[in-house]
Amino acid sequence: MTPKQPAGKVAGSLVSPAQNTWCPGCGNFSIQHMMKSAIAELSEEEGIPLENFVLLGGIGCHGKLVDYLNINSFYGIHGRSIPAATGMRLANPDLKVICHVGDGDIYAEGLDHLIFAAKRNSDITVIVHDNRVYGLTTGQYTPTSPTGFKGRSTPGGITEHPINPLEVMLAAGATHIARGYTRKVQHLKDLFKEAIVHRGFSFVDVLQICATYFNLTDYYNEHAYEVQEGEVDTGRFESALSKIREWDYDREAPIPLGTFYSVEKPIYEEKFRALTAGRPERRALVRKALEEWR
């Protein structure tokens, strides 16, 4: 990108011609536009070629984002986009791999993959479109739905307590943990940029509404606030945990937004390469195995 190509112009070129089918008022629009802007700005500021960004999507309304942005992309099956993301990053260390997932997609079917990616400190970014409901399948509850949630499959309300995904990620070993809200778009874009440039596993849970099946706009507007500098020591586990536990995705409480934890640790891709250094070239191993089985 040259100085004559401002980030705004490039951001506009990243919109694909695909017809958008999200419901009017969906929080996914904010995520799409801020992701587009974040990629364009990082390309300019950090000198990252646009072709080095890769977007992955799972199954759900969130997954359509990879159709709507003109960026290299890949669709994973339900809950399984993270294995593809870690494989891409292992195969090509130049890539910035950004995995867009939904709360039902990744906190249910995909939770095992999410935990292991965090545990390994895979150098990927995971953006969770957390509307706390299965929107594409018309309103079933997810692991972050609040107690008492009434949906198509639970008309009497659920008795379960939701998980706190940020606490799960902190316990699993994620090295960068943040939460945003789709009505605070500039803040959300900054969180995206920070997560993408972080070296290691970065995780952003984005609170958004489902305009059709679970519209929490008034609730979030009343309770969400941006964490100010000095409120949390992002390098200390205990400080991050304390701030993360201010809201448990269920009770009436202030909802902190921002980066809660960010530390540098060796990444999985480097440890993997060190583990395999000095071994025979892969094709030679395959040929040897084929010869043995003839």
From TrEMBL:
<keyword id="KW-0408">Iron</keyword>
<dbReference type="InterPro" id="IPR011766">
    <property type="entry name" value="TPP_enzyme_TPP-bd"/>
</dbReference>
<dbReference type="InterPro" id="IPR051457">
    <property type="entry name" value="2-oxoacid:Fd_oxidoreductase"/>
</dbReference>
<dbReference type="InterPro" id="IPR032686">
    <property type="entry name" value="PFO_beta_C"/>
</dbReference>
<dbReference type="InterPro" id="IPR011896">
    <property type="entry name" value="OFOB"/>
</dbReference>
<keyword id="KW-0560">Oxidoreductase</keyword>
<dbReference type="GO" id="GO:0044272">
    <property type="term" value="P:sulfur compound biosynthetic process"/>
</dbReference>
<dbReference type="GO" id="GO:0046872">
    <property type="term" value="F:metal ion binding"/>
</dbReference>
<feature type="domain" description="Thiamine pyrophosphate enzyme TPP-binding">
    <location>
        <begin position="59"/>
        <end position="206"/>
    </location>
</feature>
<dbReference type="InterPro" id="IPR029061">
    <property type="entry name" value="THDP-binding"/>
</dbReference>
<keyword id="KW-0479">Metal-binding</keyword>
<keyword id="KW-0460">Magnesium</keyword>
<keyword id="KW-0786">Thiamine pyrophosphate</keyword>
<dbReference type="Pfam" id="PF02775">
    <property type="entry name" value="TPP_enzyme_C"/>
</dbReference>
<dbReference type="Pfam" id="PF12367">
    <property type="entry name" value="PFO_beta_C"/>
</dbReference>
<dbReference type="GO" id="GO:0045333">
    <property type="term" value="P:cellular respiration"/>
</dbReference>
<dbReference type="GO" id="GO:0051536">
    <property type="term" value="F:iron-sulfur cluster binding"/>
</dbReference>
<protein>
    <submittedName>
        <fullName>2-oxoglutarate synthase</fullName>
    </submittedName>
</protein>
<dbReference type="GO" id="GO:0006082">
    <property type="term" value="P:organic acid metabolic process"/>
</dbReference>
<dbReference type="GO" id="GO:0016625">
    <property type="term" value="F:oxidoreductase activity, acting on the aldehyde or oxo group of donors, iron-sulfur protein as acceptor"/>
</dbReference>
<keyword id="KW-0411">Iron-sulfur</keyword>
<feature type="domain" description="Pyruvate ferredoxin oxidoreductase beta subunit C-terminal">
    <location>
        <begin position="215"/>
        <end position="275"/>
    </location>
</feature>
